Amino acid sequence: MKNFQRRDFLKKTTVAAAGASLMAACQPSKEKQSVEAPNVNFNKTFQWKMVTTWPPNFPVLGEGCNLLAKWIEEMSGGRLKIHVYGGGELVPPLETFEAVSNGAVEMGHGVGYYWAGKAPAAQFFAAVPFGMNAQQLNAWIISGGGLAMWEELYAKFDLQPMVCGNTGVQMGGWFNKEINSVEDLQGLKMRIPGLGGKVLSKAGGSAVTVAGGEIYTNLERGVIDATEWIGPYHDYLMGFYRVAKYYYYPGWHEAGPVLELIVNKSKFDRLPKDLQEIIRTASMRSNVWMLSEFDAKNNLYLQKLINEEGVQLRKYPEEVLKQLRLYTKEVLDEIISEDPFSAKVYESYQKFRNSINYWSEVSEKTFYNQILN
Amino acid sequence: MKNFQRRDFLKKTTVAAAGASLMAACQPSKEKQSVEAPNVNFNKTFQWKMVTTWPPNFPVLGEGCNLLAKWIEEMSGGRLKIHVYGGGELVPPLETFEAVSNGAVEMGHGVGYYWAGKAPAAQFFAAVPFGMNAQQLNAWIISGGGLAMWEELYAKFDLQPMVCGNTGVQMGGWFNKEINSVEDLQGLKMRIPGLGGKVLSKAGGSAVTVAGGEIYTNLERGVIDATEWIGPYHDYLMGFYRVAKYYYYPGWHEAGPVLELIVNKSKFDRLPKDLQEIIRTASMRSNVWMLSEFDAKNNLYLQKLINEEGVQLRKYPEEVLKQLRLYTKEVLDEIISEDPFSAKVYESYQKFRNSINYWSEVSEKTFYNQILN
């Protein structure tokens, strides 16, 4: 684009836009359009298994996995059938990564931070506290160099990663008292896993790991003082509003976790090219579908929680967020000092983030502040 | 979901989440997973034509159409080949709608407001001033009932519409003077098409239609005083920074126009089911790809414009936006009073918008204000 000449650009005039001649010159996309000669055996069929970290048919997430399998089967004319298993039906939810990696099953769906123990850098392709949101993460992974690094990381585990959904900005959690300062977090026993939990610990809180099914009872009995979960729709289904009064936002710990599809790479590479592309494309359709469903549902259930259940909506004070941001820096510094690949990914992540924030200020941020209302 | 019982929900415990039994009960998605028996003739091939409103290989938009064709060809194992034509190569850009509608070609790519003359309500599925952004429009169309109305509207023209891209929030335009009040818009000759132009006219400005290729020269010679185009990447390529000093944001007239794929419905309906689903899915992949490319590129080119070309970035004053919003209401009221289908679509659009704004305040808006920095 450096040698771009405006005059060339303006030679050709069309109604909607301009610049055919130059654009053709700077974008040789005729080449892109050439497609390898089809080498497809339409008689060969595949029966695959997909394990997930979600309960069977779990709203949005499990439903999305079922739809993914349906789309793939339909697009392949029935040549690639995928049986979707809920977490625990075939393997425990958090063994999804291992099961796909060792080839016990062909596919899995979950979030990168679940495998932080095996691949710490996977967290940057999921969610880090005070990190990028759904739209920014898409831009980084798809158009900003993120995918190549993600593939490099997962290739070590014989896995092919794909973006396959996003929850959007999560909520900050349920509390039985107001959080007016960082002091209010001290001694607080909160169910908050992963990096968010480490940040809370630095703030003097006590991060507890509680399985999803036990959170409600623990909160009711005072075994824990607070919990985060996902967003208004799923939080409503869990009934937290019956045992906690204050519902905080924003979800500083997860501003838009990437939900990932992982495919056993050896098996993926041996698939006919058309089926590979079908999987890639279906995953991107799920990516949009899940976020759209979350947005449409969270919207309705937030209003339900407030208007029908009397939930008190609260915003984390700026000062608390400022402190948590500082603790986040400490937590991330520890990770990158211990894991060289994390350092490499974090550098790319931060570079893209600092850069896109500049554009987001002018575009989306201004939309929400000046156009939304 | 009304009879949801927390106790049932908590019966089954898994590590990542909870609620298999209930979720299975409230979401009968086994049925969803059943796939019609494949009825696919893998020997039949199709050669289709796709016309677009963009110059051939136009950055992001034309490139995205080329990629769409490539994905479809790859996924179909070469059974559906699509030749993509730039605007004017086969039919003039703005005749895309008509050419696909009458079956001269099978597919087209453009934006709904281009066909406002034939179907005024199409504008609500594209962009209206002070309307929804990309993420909100996806949620409305995909998960909020928008698609059914869009399909109903386009069926009258024998067209099947699909979401197939988004530019994200656009920029507000290039000016040779500062805009400090609505008075500064009076008498201003600005290249701004569609509804944005009508709003400007109400503010006392003069909306001019100028073909893309003539904007630069008209601006240089003072035939027009100002222009809007797309965003930093495309605006940079047009060279506007050489003849206008002030670059305004936000693009209040287009907060995230939906780019659409239109397929001749009769021909689409006669396609084998697998190819139909391949087109639908590829369109959604383009949807994500285009927005990601716009975000990644706009980000870099905005910095280039400011740091290398000395462009003065300016934000529209709140008071000006407030006035333009009032004029927008007048413009929209005129449209819905003249066209009953527009009234119906606008009702759904506004209802969803008012509702999702509630959630966006808590999620994305707070992300941009409290987490971004």
TrEMBL record, chains A, B:
InterPro entries: DctP_fam (IPR018389), SBP_TakP-like (IPR026289), TAT_signal (IPR006311), TAT_signal_bac_arc (IPR019546), TRAP_DctP_sf (IPR038404). The keyword Transferase does not apply. Keywords: Signal. NCBIfam families: TAT_signal_seq (TIGR01409), TRAP_S1 (NF037995). This is TRAP transporter substrate-binding protein. It comes from Splendidivirga corallicola.
